[in-house]
Structure to design on (155 residues):
């Protein structure tokens, strides 16, 4: 008996497009589900060193929520590469200015920190409202069924 082993041929042509509505979803739980689809871990032909994942469109990022005190205490940091150039912004301010970045950073943090992870992150599209459905209508995205635990959190 031989084990099925996917080759790298035809992976890009067989990718599906999924759409996820972030309205009322917890950011971390949403990010884990999206990261699983981007890496391809939800498929039986998953292979760690191949990009077997699908494309994901996240809409209504403005309406995603943080639980607990993260909304007040969580900070995002970056450095300008100049002396004394550490800049910080709270998640509340970042959410008000760029809600898409909050979701993108959460998902990218759950992907591999390699060239493969960067390729997976390119398959993620995040929109603050529902314009992503209009913009990607040609790809005919399917709604992504979230896990029962994430769906229970939404309700």
């Amino acid at each position: 008996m031989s084990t099925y082993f996917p080759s790298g041929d035809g992976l890009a042509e067989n990718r599906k497009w999924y759409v996820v509505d972030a309205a009322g979803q917890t950011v971390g739980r949403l990010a884990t589900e999206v990261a699983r689809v981007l890496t391809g871990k939800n498929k039986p032909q998953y292979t760690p060193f191949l990009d077997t994942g699908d494309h994901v469109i996240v809409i209504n990022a403005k309406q995603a929520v943080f639980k607990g005190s993260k909304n007040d205490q969580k900070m995002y940091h970056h450095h300008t590469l100049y002396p004394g150039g550490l800049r910080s912004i709270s998640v509340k301010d970042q959410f008000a200015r760029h809600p898409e970045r909050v979701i993108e950073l959460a998902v990218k943090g759950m992907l591999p920190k390699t060239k493969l992870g960067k390729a997976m992150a390119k398959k993620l599209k995040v929109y603050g409202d529902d314009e992503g459905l209009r913009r990607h209508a040609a790809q005919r995205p399917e709604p992504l069924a979230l896990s029962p635990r994430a769906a229970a959190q939404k309700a």
In short: The first helix runs from residue 27 to 39.
